[in-house]
Recover the amino acids of this structure.
């Protein structure tokens, strides 16, 4: 192992910017009073913009592996880092408005920064030890974000549930990783990929099954999704938005890397396993979402279903040309539309103190702009053109048919038709009913900026998907 | 120029959103001006169209998603041009009809204009992904229109409309993806697919794609047994919504069958010609019988649409079964003219029913009678539109149905006999409608205000255009047959 590749600090500049900023802010926030409570949020926004710029610059670097081959510097990792930083940016903006004047205001951005660094690390890790470390690092701040409002007993309960689930799932996953190590004698994904060729398939299946549990937990795949609706419901809406986007995107990035680098030959029949999980996830998410009356729970089940859609292309990632790019594009679209929807729920929650579907009644009339933004995000989640969610679904279904899984594409399309019901139910409440209460939702610069970013992205990447698709197809090449 | 026609409605719609909330009258006037400009420019398209020229004219292309082989590609041919002009005409009619309506005028005008851009785009798109995109833009606003301005059960009707449409569209999308992936290199370009016939020798794949597209277009047409959304949507929709729904949105289905399904998969259409024929006869007879049983005038007109659109399916079935190119061409000509004619006449009928409802608050057939003595101008137009829909010579419906039945006779006398049977039932339907005009007025009939010049002008204009086609069909038939000859060459 050449020693000059074991200390490449340049490879982690964006992570260091964010982690350094977060560490520097920790001692400061205790003293933040009055107007200074906004300081961590402003610093985090600046830090994230800097990190985005540095990461974008890293797209141009030739692919390599740093830190003794444990840390990938490739366009795949860079693309996922950009996604995560962008999601964090929107979250920080929203949190700033949501907790404006609250005691929690200075704490929230720090947690977002730590979680984001964890996600970024997961996208780049080539080593089993780092993978489990970064999975913990993306989860831990997420529990704290969920339980941010210490006076809220439901939030505390949600945090506990989330934490216990995570501890169990990640322990199972770590156990699975020991099997991979035992089978191949290596912790590195690429070495494992080579070592698994001659290994006993039974043990490969066991190892894969156990490892999948961890990713399935983070990405809310059935049957490891149970924590999500409770955690989202207990959390404040912006925190739920963050938890529904950043850990999930990081998990998909990590899962793709594992499948394509360590199980490259389709070992353990993973394409079929993933396809089956995709069917279960989207069907279950959609069916349960039909009956929800709280918006956060509804969006929780919706995000489970959306994760199932993404898996459609993951299942053919090794055989269909555009599959990895389709996953990347869809995750970008999901990030924008899902954060946009959670953002409007956040505004409702701050104004009316509830996220029940009745609170949104007549929103189209009393607050036309947030109403229109919510409608656009929901229509995009449902896959109506010309929005980003539509373009993304076309790419996913196309990849599945191209990869020889037409049946999966058909099940996906049926699910998308069913999914329309609950999105449209919310839209009908907003537009077809007269408001129960007259006031409009509260605004705020952070809400406005976050909403502008997510809605503009949803529309622009829907009408002109090409730049984003090109960007995500840059990430097709893993090394 | 074609792009101007497609996007002027959308731009007008965006301008309308900027008008201050206190000026609904200004919203209405701007929306009218935008739709009138669209109509004028669409007529310029028509004037510049060379019926003997190349099959795609006014073409405009640009890169869109080159990495997956989807392009921005719009053009007109003899089939799409009449439908584009019809769209612009009915959009203008609607905008004039709603001039005095001020309830949430901004959203109302925006949705109709957005929908118009979608419809115009569908008829112009030459790329399947672009077609799909415009297809949904042409449909989703109607969900809001029914839900926001509809009758009592509007939420149910709007939802049913959306769900049927969405299920159909997703099936269609999978079909498009099948065609796309069968091309090498992958492309969504419709002219390229028609030229290459990628699924000509793949019976299994072409059957799957055929059923996907048939489901997508069949829901919109609608054909029995997937027509169930239509009566509810029509009854709950506001009058102007029904005009656009029947006059234009149903045409997306017919246009898709003639201009996408048939040329892209001629072998599959021939193979499943019997199925199309069965669906057509079912729609013709069921639509007529169901219309006969209605007591609500709007529901009655809605069911006649199912009957009338049955001619479009019939024409395609006949084209698939016939071996003679001239018979095929005749049938397809009839299908296109039927679509234009139905847009004018049924659009007009919905306006007439809307005017009665606006005055009296009811659409029950039994509540009216002897209108001819009370509202002579209204009655004359009502009669002209009703009998025109029925196929009275001199109006456009006759030209259309005559051609389709003529082509059918060439294929089988027995099928033609069944079509004539549906015509006989339809006679009963129109006689019931005519009962509104003749006979004695019921005691309980509400009093009626005479028509305003605006209302008279609208219904008169639609009748006049239909008569123009009925008496001098030359220009329309020439444009249409240029295109159908191409589709008939398989």
């Amino acid at each position: 192992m050449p020693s000059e590749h074991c200390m490449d600090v340049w490879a982690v500049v964006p992570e260091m910017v964010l982690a350094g900023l977060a560490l520097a802010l920790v001692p400061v926030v205790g003293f933040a009073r009055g107007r200074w409570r906004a300081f961590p949020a402003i610093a985090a926004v600046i830090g994230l913009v800097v990190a985005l710029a540095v990461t974008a610059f890293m797209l141009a670097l030739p692919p390599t592996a740093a830190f003794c081959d444990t840390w990938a510097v490739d366009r795949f990792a860079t693309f996922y880092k950009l996604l995560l930083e962008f999601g964090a940016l929107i979250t920080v903006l929203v949190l700033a408005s949501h907790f404006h004047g609250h005691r929690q205001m200075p704490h929230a951005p720090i947690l977002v920064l730590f979680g984001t660094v964890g996600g970024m690390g997961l996208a780049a890790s080539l080593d089993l030890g780092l993978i489990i470390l970064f999975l913990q690092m993306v989860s831990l701040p997420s529990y704290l974000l969920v339980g941010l409002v210490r006076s809220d007993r439901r939030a505390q309960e949600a945090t506990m549930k989330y934490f216990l689930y995570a501890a169990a799932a990640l322990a199972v996953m770590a156990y699975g990783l020991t099997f991979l190590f035992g089978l191949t004698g290596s912790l590195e994904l690429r070495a494992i990929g080579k070592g698994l060729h001659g290994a006993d398939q039974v043990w490969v299946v066991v190892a894969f099954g156990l490892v999948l549990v961890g990713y399935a937990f983070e990405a809310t795949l059935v049957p490891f999704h149970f924590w999500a609706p409770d955690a989202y419901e207990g959390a404040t809406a912006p925190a739920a938005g963050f938890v529904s986007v950043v850990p999930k995107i990081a998990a998909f990035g990590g899962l793709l890397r594992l499948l394509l680098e360590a199980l490259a030959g389709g070992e353990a029949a993973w394409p079929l396993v993933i396809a089956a999980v995709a069917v279960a996830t989207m069907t279950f998410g959609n069916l349960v979402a039909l009956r929800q009356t709280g918006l956060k729970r509804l969006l929780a089940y919706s995000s489970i279903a959306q994760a199932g859609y993404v898996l459609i292309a993951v299942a053919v990632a090794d055989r269909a040309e555009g599959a990895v790019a389709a996953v990347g594009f869809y995750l970008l679209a999901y990030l924008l539309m899902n954060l946009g929807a959670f953002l409007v729920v956040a505004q409702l929650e701050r104004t009316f103190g509830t996220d029940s579907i009745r609170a949104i009644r007549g929103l189209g009339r009393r607050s036309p702009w947030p109403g229109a933004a919510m409608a656009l995000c929901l229509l995009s989640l449902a896959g109506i053109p010309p929005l980003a969610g539509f373009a993304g679904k076309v790419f996913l279904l196309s990849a599945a048919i191209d990869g020889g899984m037409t049946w999966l594409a058909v099940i996906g399309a049926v699910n998308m038709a069913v999914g329309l019901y609950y999105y449209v139910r919310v839209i009908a409440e907003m537009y077809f009913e007269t408001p129960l209460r007259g006031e409009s939702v509260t605004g705020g610069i952070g809400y406005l900026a976050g909403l502008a970013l997510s809605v503009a992205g949803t529309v622009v990447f829907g009408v002109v998907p090409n730049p984003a698709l090109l960007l995500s197809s840059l990430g097709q090449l893993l090394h | 120029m074609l792009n101007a026609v497609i996007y002027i409605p959308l731009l007008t719609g965006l301008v309308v959103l900027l008008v201050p909330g206190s000026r609904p009258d200004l919203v209405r006037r701007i929306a009218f001006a935008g739709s009138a400009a669209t109509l004028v420019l669409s007529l310029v398209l028509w004037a510049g169209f060379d019926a003997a020229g190349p099959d795609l004219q006014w073409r405009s292309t640009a890169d869109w998603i080159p990495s997956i082989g989807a392009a921005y590609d719009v053009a007109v041919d003899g089939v799409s041009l009449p439908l584009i002009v019809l769209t612009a005409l009915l959009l203008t009619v609607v905008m004039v009809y709603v001039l005095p309506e001020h309830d949430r005028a901004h959203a109302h005008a925006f949705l109709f204009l957005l929908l118009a851009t979608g419809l115009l785009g569908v008829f112009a798109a030459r790329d399947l992904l672009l077609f799909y995109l415009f297809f949904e833009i042409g449909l989703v606003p109607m969900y809001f229109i029914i839900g926001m301005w509809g009758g009592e059960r509007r939420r149910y009707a709007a939802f049913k409309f959306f769900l049927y449409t969405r299920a159909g569209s997703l099936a269609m999308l999978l079909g498009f993806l099948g065609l796309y992936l069968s091309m090498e290199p992958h492309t969504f370009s419709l002219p390229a697919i028609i030229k290459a016939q990628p699924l000509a020798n793949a019976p299994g794949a072409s059957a799957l794609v055929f059923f996907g597209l048939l489901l997508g277009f069949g829901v919109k047409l609608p054909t029995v047994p997937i027509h169930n959304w239509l009566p509810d949507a029509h009854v709950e929709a506001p009058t102007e919504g029904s005009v656009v729904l029947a006059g234009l949105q149903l045409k997306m289905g017919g246009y898709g069958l003639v201009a996408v399904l048939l040329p892209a998969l001629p072998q599959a259409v021939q193979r499943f010609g019997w199925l199309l024929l069965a669906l057509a006869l079912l729609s013709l007879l069921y639509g007529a019988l169901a219309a006969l049983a209605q007591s609500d005038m709007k529901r009655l007109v809605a069911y006649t649409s199912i009957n009338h659109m049955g001619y479009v399916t019939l024409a395609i079935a006949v084209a698939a079964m016939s071996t003679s190119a001239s018979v095929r061409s005749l049938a397809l000509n009839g299908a296109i003219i039927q679509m234009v004619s139905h847009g004018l006449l049924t659009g007009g009928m919905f306006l007439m029913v809307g005017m009665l409802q606006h005055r009296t608050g009811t659409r029950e057939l039994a509540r009216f009678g002897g209108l001819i003595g009370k509202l002579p101008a209204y009655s004359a137009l009502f009669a002209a539109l009703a009998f025109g829909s029925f196929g009275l010579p001199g109006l456009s419906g006759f030209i259309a149905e005559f051609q389709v039945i003529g082509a059918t006779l060439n294929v089988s006398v027995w099928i033609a006999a069944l079509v004539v049977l549906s015509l006989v039932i339809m006679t009963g339907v129109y006689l019931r409608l005519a009962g509104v005009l003749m006979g004695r007025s019921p005691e309980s009939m509400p009093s009626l205000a005479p028509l305003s010049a605006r209302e008279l002008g609208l219904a008169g204009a639609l009748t006049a255009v239909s008569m123009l086609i009925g008496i001098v069909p030359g220009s329309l038939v020439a444009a249409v047959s240029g295109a159908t000859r191409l589709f008939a060459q398989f």
About this structure: Chain B has a mean pLDDT of 90. Strands of chain B lie at 57-65, 70-76. Chain B is about 75% helix and 5% strand.
